[in-house]
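Need the bound structure for tetrahydrodeoxyuridine, inputs here:
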Amino acid sequence: MNDKEKSDLIKRAIEARAFAYAPYSGFSVGAAVLCADGSVFTGCNVENASYPCGICAERTAAAKAVGEGRRDIIAAAIVGSSAEKCTPCGVCRQFLFEFAPDMIVLCGDKDGNYAEYKLSGLLPEGFGPGSLG
Ligand code: THU
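Answer from helper R.:
Posting the output first, comments after.
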């Protein structure tokens, strides 16, 4: 992935953030996942009056990809709505790990400045499909 592709993915995440439904936390998040064939799926966080029922932006985006037949996710961009770069929560690290432990994870702040990680670095020794034997 070159720098242009990375900033394009961050832009898609910023656009998706506009759809966030976050009346309880007030923290809007957008995400975009890039698949090997170049397709991009976006998502936002969707909260719920029953708080634990809410879902994070990156899980929404990844579930959309898988639900459209794309499991080959190679990168994910996540942008929050604060000055802090938004790193994926533990549940989302595990959810994404299922599909590509080595995917690139771009963690952005409200303005789209981002830091780059490998998912395997964010979830060392992760439990994946191969762990079931
Ligand atoms: N959130 C995400 O959507 N992705 C993350 O990686 C971190 C947290 C959401 C969940 C909740 O709706 C809000 O941010 C505050 O935690």
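Comments: DSSP finds four helices and five strands in the chain. The two ends are 32 Å apart (CA to CA).
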